[in-house]
Amino acid sequence: MSAYLLLRHVHVTLALISIGLFVLRGIPRVVLQHPLNQRWLRIAPHINDTLLLLSGLVLMIWSAQYPPAHVWLTLKLVLLVVYILLGIAAFRATTAPGLQKLLFVMALAVFGWIVAIALTR
């Protein structure tokens, strides 16, 4: 297996871990209105997502596919920002519970859109 393919598999694995951690935090916080207070669950997503972003940047450079030249990559990056903002708003304590649920579902949908784009490229 080439180093590029290995890195791509690592990137996909990190993406799966990322959405898993998002759901693991979101179900208790948003759906059940009872946040998990485990420290590792507040820290692990940030570490994982940093590695996910770094692996994505390396893949982008390695393949010489840059956002302005490739519309699909630009869209993925814009959707990533939307996903992050929706997640932040969904987990914010001051957001109304009904709105939290809507934002959480919207964040999941945006993540699914990002994955759909990745699978078609």
Can you describe this structure?
Helix content is 82%, strand content 0%. The chain is mostly helical and 121 residues long. The chain has one domain. Helix 1 runs antiparallel to helix 2, helix 1 runs antiparallel to helix 4 and helix 3 packs antiparallel against helix 4. It is globular and about 45 Å long. The two termini are 20 Å apart. 14% of the residues are buried.
Kindly report the average pLDDT value.
Answer: 93
The tally of beta strands, per DSSP, is 0
Count of structural domains: 1
Rg, rounded, reads 15 Å
How are helices and strands ordered from N to C? Answer: HHHH
Helix percentage range: over 70%
- Largest sheet geometry: none
Secondary-structure topology with pairs:
Elements: H1 3-31, H2 39-63, H3 71-91, H4 97-120
Helix pairs in contact: 1-2, 1-4, 3-4
In short:
82% of the residues lie in helices and 0% in strands. It is mainly alpha-helical and 121 residues long. The chain has one domain (3-120).
Keywords:
single chain, 121 residues, mainly alpha, 4 helices, globular
